[in-house]
Amino acid sequence: MTSAIARRTLLAGAAVPVLAACGGGASDGVGADGKVTVELWHGQNDTARKAVEALVAEFNRTHPRVRVDSSGGGVVADAMLQKVTAALAAGSYPDIAYVFGSDLAGIARSPRVVDLTTAVREGPTPWTSFWSPVRDAVTVNGKVRAAPAVLDSLAVVYNKKLFRQAGVTFPKAGWTWDEFVDTARNLTDSGRGVFGTGWPGTGDEDTVWRLWPMIWDLGGDVVDDDGKRIGFADQGVRALETLARLTRDKSVYVDPKPGGEQMYQVFLGGRMAMVATGPWQLPDIITAEIDYDVVPLPTYSGRPVTISGPDTWTVFDNGSARSRAAVEFVRWMMQPAQDVRWGISAGSLPLSSATARRPEWRRHSERTTGLKVFTDVLGSARVRPVHAAYPQISQALGEAIISVLLGKASPSRALRRCADTADAALLIPR
């Protein structure tokens, strides 16, 4: 197990060739007492904030030559991209930031981002033990540009009580999108204010990433092989047709507020039968005492397909000493002994098979209904491409999804508009 591997203390002289280039001299960032202070912007709130701060406190206790400052820079995770981008432009940025996987390609274009290829691939946690979505999410053009921080997957959580009341059979693995649409319709009861399902309706990434498994299942991709156009011109239309059917049936609750908070409140209030979500939502569902279970996403092809949205610890170059200390911290966080605590506390999945084998995780999984489903579907999970044009593609697809969910455009018309905008973004030199 990784926990048996002796922890290296970088600042005590164990060399780790992780920095492609560091500004300043070896003493940069070292205080008069010989301690290096590392600034961490984690962007977490509530339970996740307490979890990461507890781990930071432990790291500081056990690494006397390093102090991680997790006061956070006054930023939440949803606004991290803008905050970090502005900080880089101003020349005053953190040593580590919690960066969404979908934002990594844009951030990694900065020369201030530290190349972690050697640090991660040859670190104490074997590279091959990380799940495939984890490896893919932190790799840009063949190089590891960040350390994995959080792992999730998408599946369908359903309210068993509402199914029983409507006399509808519980869904099973391998069910189809046609069955999903029919089930949502049969579970909708407008008189009681009950919806069959829900979908975020702001056009942001929360709206978009739920459509990618449907597109992948149909044989499409985010970007075409030639790199000059989207890879879902046809498949996107069919996926949007599924949403259009939900809209026509009035069985989908379209959440008008960011973060899907109202959608989840409807589910937690017992007025939504099914919601596609990740393991992060299970603590709230359990607290609400919903009689629930979890099933993999439906399929068009009969093959299991889902999406994972790993997030990252991205390290920035503030001089060699601070960079090495930052790398020491993120490598420590990735090790199974820490990863299991972070995953259990923050509602995440284990980053690696080594973490999944730990007895703490096994006990947690056994006593948490449906958690094993989220872990098992990682075997069929894909990630969004780490592509610099992805934000523009996502925005265009988000607008298409909303226009269909609100009945303002047909799937074919909405996708044509999406393709025009996204294809133009792909042609911009980067």
Automatic annotation (TrEMBL):
Coiled coil segments of this chain: none
Stored InterPro entries: Bact_solute-bd_prot1, SBP
UniProt signal peptide: 1-20
Keywords: Signal
Pfam families: SBP_bac_1
Cited SUPFAM superfamilies: Periplasmic binding protein-like II
PANTHER family noted in UniProt: ABC TRANSPORTER SUBSTRATE-BINDING PROTEIN, ARABINOSE-BINDING PROTEIN-RELATED
Protein name: ABC transporter substrate-binding protein
